[in-house]
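User: structure tokens for this one?
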Amino acid sequence: MPFNLSTITEPVNNKNFRECMDFFTEQKLSARSAAFDLEWEKAAQKAVRIQTTSRNAGKTANAGNKNERYLRRENARVLRAGRLNSCGRRLVVRKNEEGRNKSSVHQFAQVYKHPERKTISFGGLMSCGSVWECPVCAAKITEARRKELQQAVKLWEEKNNSVLLLTLTRPHYKPDSCKEVTDGLNNATRRFYNSRGFKQSAQNMGLEGRIKTIEPMYGEVNGWHTHTHTLLFIDGKISDKEIETIKQALLPQWQAACFSAGLPVPNEHGLDLVAGNNAAAYVSKWGIESEMTKGHLKKGKKGDLVSPFGLLDMYAEGNEKAGELFVEYCEAFKGKRQLTWTRGLREKIGLEKEKTEAEILNKPEEESELFISVISHTWDKIIRSNRLLEFIGVCERGTKEDAQKWLDDLEWKEKVWRMHNKNALKQAGLVIQ
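Assistant:
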């Protein structure tokens, strides 16, 4: 695009521009110094009205509901920082055959687009791998886990066996912290599964193995509500009458485990047991395998209860208390496993070795196609100007040519800003190198 220095005018926000220029004059900075670049970008972002805070990311993105997980990640990054500052933002350094870092022109981010859903995913970027804190990593990991559980249930039932869904919960109250509720529940659950009574019941029902997960929710009335879901893999078919008998036998054992753990004793609502073929109606529209993996991803509110990532949505709307609750939840669940399989169950079902979070995240989304590649210095400009969400929206709604035009426009604007810098410095009597 042709560029004429005489057509450049000061940015819209003259105050920010002059403050920035005063800083440059006082410090006598070169137009090529890192400090110059940083301060100029801050002024330029404000001048062209680019949102520079993640709390206002939704106004910048304008990309519809498909971007929800990226919007949530930006808000989580504001609250948690740490590895989230690198997740989906920094490039994975590529090595050559000699093990040395490749030059910057060979470092790039890959953008993938699903041909039907039009959703965007990335390759070549760092991932935090946190299933509890990062909505983007959690979405990809839980989807892989969901499909694996779906396959496990299908293979087991094809062998003329049964799968039951056991839900355990404990009494909880408003003053209880998330850590207190969760640790207390884990303690009681461990005592329950290790008790002589449960082992006898497991033998009677023909239990071959189980898969356990934990799900946190928050309610304004009674505070944190954490409960566990466990898939019970039963040898042979089991009737509804037998399920009810097992449920009545397990309830006093769960009550005894809670009492032994120093918790209030739950009533009959503290334990529920349903057959796998009825679980879909009981848990959610996704079905039994999604309740096991996507509980903390539930959108919005369920009665008085809201999911952890629902708290991020409330925080984005200005609810500071929701942000504090999300941080509390992250601290309580840090380092915990999402799914726990009993030893030997995978072999009995006929599944391969479980994939790690890194293996899942490094694989592109199924059926997605490479849409566009962004070289490192252009990607850095997208991140520094806080326009990642806007770029994702352009890729989702438009064609490859639209995305490339947007990237070219970003490059041109930076050239305008830099040339304007040099013009102002010349007028200030500074030497431009």
